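Figure S7 source data.
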Amino acid sequence: MEASGPDLNQIQGNLSGFNKDHQRFLFLSFPRQESGRAFLAAVVDDIATCAEVRAFNDVYRLVSQRRKCPDPKPVEATWLNLGVSFKGLEVLGAGDLEKMPEEFRIPMRDRATEIGDVDASAPAMWSPPFQSDIHAVLIIASDDPDDLEEESVHMRRHISETGVGELGFVDGNDRPEPNGGHEHFGFKDGISQPTIEGVTSPARPGENVIPLGEFVLGHPKLGDPSRPDPPPDAYSPVQPPVPPDVPAWAVNGSFLVFRKLFQDVAGFQSFVTQQASGANMSEDVFGAKMVGRYKSGAPLQRTGGTADLDPEAPEAAAENNPSLKPEEIDNFDYSGDQDGLDMPRAAHIRKSNPRASSFPGQEETNRHRILRRGIQYGPEFQPGETPYGGGTPTDGQDRGLLFVCYQSSIANGFEFIQSQWMNQDGFPQAGDGRDPITSQDQDKAKFKIPRREHEEIHLELTRWVITRGGEYFLSPSIDGVRALAGGVADG
Ligand code: N7H
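Tokens for the predicted delta-meso nitroheme complex:
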């Protein structure tokens, strides 16, 4: 089944980015078909759409720019989105489930081998509720923590009235100032995102426009013979149909990957301190070699405005680095750094989006883009904390990233990036090593830093990111939720 164009009143709003500082992920189970269906019927009108979120974000930007205020109080919103797991769809009695892709038909914990959730990240070590069968997730996102609580009370009323079970919840919060927008290792996050053709506008020069079908079900994808390639600037709804590959009720839905990723901040920091001094590099530059950006968000890559800047020089890491200009921050493609002398080929942002590197090349890279919509969780790191020694992190230590991403194929999006790029020593080239931030699948993994006038550095990595849980969901369209609630989506 194919949709004719982007109906922004159908697609759930977090695809265009809630951008909220406070978010709650509430995990649910449907004890019976009737209760699950009644719950969906009760909440469907509360689900925020892309049309609403986009309109709100435009007003927010306008007010914030004119009033020169980064956080304009009068413009606040609380949004709700919903995801249903494959097991949840089974309980609801959804039809044509055999058309759903294989990797979605089993819980994330049964994909542990494929995605590298082993040892401390193994599902047997996951925290509650991730060892239970989760049928649905509610995402409540707000500018104001009190409004978030109010919406939670409202949702819990529906939960108890319809007899649905609450398995648990996880709260995410942006870090307090001056660290807002930065993840717990200290790096600015949420910079590089693909632009969704016909849905979002490029936030910055250099960002690729990717067809809606790479993120939303039922629309033509890149390379689809039914659409021009490379993509035109504007979405053209007049396109021949694509072969029916998803159930009709799933059109305009998107697959949502949720992962609770613990970060060992003390362990990461002490590794950087030790290794930087051995390599005779500043800690700022050394950290940037692993991530691909300095903590400020500036890329470790010469862009137009920084062509003459040595990326290893201390001024490159400074907050006033010229590549922090909006037009420079995401405007690079590695074509001038094939050897990884500026940014190692295995640095986190290069592994996860190799852009126009000679291998695999821009076109192939663009078939594996994801919309990242994560948020930090847990308390602030306190100086003097010791590195995590294994087992269950204590409450005061349990912090990290609630990783959330959307795509039209989990196999081609999240799973591909994680298993074929990040967890491969030989990608993009033999000997480059593993992603130093997210490769949890191997102890003492290797990571190579090539250098201009020095010998290349070969590191043995520790694991600083540990999976504590996760699940795969479908984020259905508004009509999809209605169909599932009404039994119209029956087989
Ligand atoms: Fe990553 N980090 O702080 O080091 N990530 N990431 N990530 N990540 C990015 O451009 C981080 C994770 C991607 O287009 C930045 O927004 C941490 C997973 C992709 O240039 C920083 C964790 C996956 C990009 C981090 C984590 C990805 C990206 C730079 C786990 C996918 C965009 C800021 C705790 C499987 C690359 C930015 C591009 C960027 C960090 C997880 C993917 C700072 C700490 C699991 C595609």
